[in-house]
Amino acid sequence: MRCDLHVHSRFSGRCTVPILRHVVDESYSEPEQVYVRARARGMDLVTLTDHDTIEGALALAGRPDTFVSEEVTCGLPGGRELHLGVYDLTEEQHAGISVRRHDAERLFAYLAEQRLPVSLNHPFSALTGDRRTHDLDVAFARFDLVEGRNSMLPPVTNRSAVEAATSRGLSLVGGSDSHTLNSVARAYTVVPGARTRAEFLAGLRQGFTIPAGESGTYARFTGDLARIAGLAYRQALTGSVAPLTAAALLAAAPLLPLLPLVTAAVYLHERAFAARHFERFTGDVGRRRRRPLGGGTMAPASA
Question: What domains appear along the chain, each with residue ranges and CATH number?
Answer without folding.
Answer: 2-219+264-287 (3.20.20.140)
